[in-house]
Amino acid sequence: MHEVVFYAAAAWLTVLLAVGVVALIMVSSTAGRILALDTLTLVLAALLVLYGAANRSPYYVDAALILALLAFVGTVAAARYHGERKIF
Fold first, then answer.
1. Within-domain flag for 38
2. What's the confidence (pLDDT) of residue 36?
3. Which of 18, 26, 62, 75 has a CA that sits 20 to 30 A from residue 33's CA?
4. Residues of the chain with pLDDT > 90: what percent?
5. How far is 87 from 64, CA to CA, in rounded Å?
6. Distances from the Cα of 15 to the Cαs of 37, 69, 70, 87, in angstroms?
7. Separation between Cα atoms, residue 87 and residue 85, nearest integer Å
């Protein structure tokens, strides 16, 4: 049963990754691209967590947390730069 859930989650995250890439390419506004890129990084972090859980390795979970933190900081900086033309 666990393998079915793992493969279903992996397939779903792969579909979400493909949709995110298409959204990143197709969206013309800068704010939409910032959102699509943030979504892509969070789906990649979810894939890392799923892979780490499958291999029983905590290092992938640590990498996913660092990726999510960097994605958050990058999204905030990009959104602030887009809105006010300054980062700090």
1. yes
2. 93
3. 62
4. 70
5. 25
6. 15, 23, 23, 33
7. 7
Is residue 34 within 8 A of residue 74, CB to CB? The reply is: no
pLDDT tens-digit map of 43-84: 999 999 999 988 888 899 999 999 999 999 999 999 899 888
HSE value, Cβ hemisphere, 13 Å, CA-based, for 60:
14
Domain range for 69: 28-88
What's the confidence (pLDDT) of residue 64? 94
Does 6 fall in a domain? Answer: no
Q: Evaluate whether residue 32 is within a structural domain.
A: yes
Q: How many domains does the chain have?
A: 1
Whether residue 15 is contained in a domain is answered as no
Between CA 63 and CA 71 the distance in angstroms is 12
